Structure formats: C-alpha cells, structure tokens
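[SOLVED] Predicted holo structure with NAP

Edit: marking solved, answer below. Original request kept for reference. I posted the sequence and ligand SMILES and asked for the 3D complex as structure tokens.
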Amino acid sequence: MNITLFGATGKTGPYLIEEGLKRGHEITVFARQSSRFDYKNVRIVRGDFTDAIALHEAINGADAVLSALGPTQFPHPKGEPIAHATQALIDIMAQAQVRRLIAVSTGTAADPDDRYDMKIRLPAILIKYLMPSIYQDIVTLAQVIRQSDRDWTMVRAGFLTNRSNSKGINVGVYGKTRHQLALSRLDLAKFMFDQIESDSYLAKAPGISSC
Ligand SMILES: NC(=O)c1ccc[n+]([C@@H]2O[C@H](COP(=O)([O-])OP(=O)(O)OC[C@H]3O[C@@H](n4cnc5c(N)ncnc54)[C@H](OP(=O)(O)O)[C@@H]3O)[C@@H](O)[C@H]2O)c1
C-alpha cells in the first residue's frame, strides 16, 4: 500500500517509517522546508502546510495518511499551527479522495466517554495552565479531526518513550481501561499501521499505553 506520513521528521518518525517498510508499504514522508530530514527508501515531498501543490503531491494516491504532527518548539507558537496543518492535510485528502486518517493526539484531548484517570488528567491540567498555547492547539486539533468527514482514528498517548521491546498494549478510553502512562513509540507505530485495514476504531479516540 501507499502510505503518507506527516510528522515523521520528529522522534516517532523512524519507528513509523521502519514499521511501514517492514510491512512492505511504499512510504511517502511530507517534510517541512525547514526540517532537516533525510531517510533511505522513502519518498520525501518537501513543502509547507500552506503549499496545496506539495500536499497534493504527498497525499494523492495514498491508501492512508498517518500523522504524528505535534508541538515541538517551546514556547509553542500561538495560533494553533498543528490544528491548522492538520486541517490543510485533511482538505487535500478530501480533494484527492483519500479516506483513511490515523492521527496521534494526547490524553489532554478528552473524549466524552473518558472517566477520571489521575495520571492523564493531572498532566492535562498542568498543560492547560502552564502551556496554554499547546493546550489550545491540542484541543483544536482534536476538534478538527473529529469534525472531518474522513475515516479517522485518533490515537491518544500519555507519555512517549523509546523503549525498544514490546510487551503488548492497553487500548481504550481513559478511566475505563487499565492504562500505564507510558507508550513506546514502537508500540504506537505498530498500532497505527494495524489500524490501516481495521475499522475497530473508526471515528474513535482510544487511549493506548504500553504494558
Ligand atoms: N512526546 C510525548 O511524550 C508525547 C505524549 C503524548 C502525545 N504525543 C504526540 O505524539 C506525536 C509524536 O510525538 P514526537 O515526540 O515524535 O513528536 P516530535 O518529535 O516533537 O515531532 C513533531 C512533528 O511535528 C512537526 N511539527 C511541529 N511543529 C509543527 C508546526 N508548527 N507545523 C507543522 N509541523 C510541525 C515536526 O516537524 P519539523 O521536523 O518540521 O519540526 C515533527 O515532524 C505528536 O503528535 C505528539 O503531540 C507526544
């Protein structure tokens, strides 16, 4: 399959790329002009999120789009750049008739079915008051994904690690599922690729954590 990755220039990128290549997919990575990124055996399309032609080049013909876009800079700029970038790629997905979107979010983006889980709610409150521009972007990003007419799955993570072995994952809304805080990027990448041909979490936002 042809899979287009956004946010793969960040720390989760190598895990996503390696998982995709291992499964035999053709991988396209959209990289911002400013991003120092190079990787073997993937197609790289460079552009900015205001560049509809570059976005179309990256997305057209894809069987699915996976996004690990998230706040990198601190302080995070105001104006919700991650939500806007995601809206831009969703608009181009619609134009190119690409339906499947699997995007990473965080426990800070609450789901209506969540119940109280202190290890998720406490960081969310701290982010809300200490890093309001990040908080606002995360909340708006979740709205953008939920309101899209794509076949979306929003994968919510607590705290990402680079643990290299997988002992399995916990999946489900917070407060109703036995979760750890940490999720390895390896488990995240596997879960995202598993969703490409699964409709188990269509229009859902499961929390996931490593066992
Ligand atoms: N780190 C954690 O503990 C944690 C916890 C929960 C959820 N998450 C989520 O997991 C995902 C992956 O995390 P990570 O640690 O791998 O992320 P990361 O290393 O910070 O990478 C973030 C990606 O987003 C892109 N990006 C950042 N700011 C952008 C902007 N203004 N416009 C467009 N693109 C932008 C970066 O592109 P450039 O290379 O061009 O900067 C990069 O590809 C993110 O969605 C993050 O929110 C992370």
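OP edit: The beta strands are 2-6, 26-31, 43-46, 64-67, 100-106, 151-157, 159-161, 169-172, 182-184, 207-210. Thanks to everyone who chimed in.
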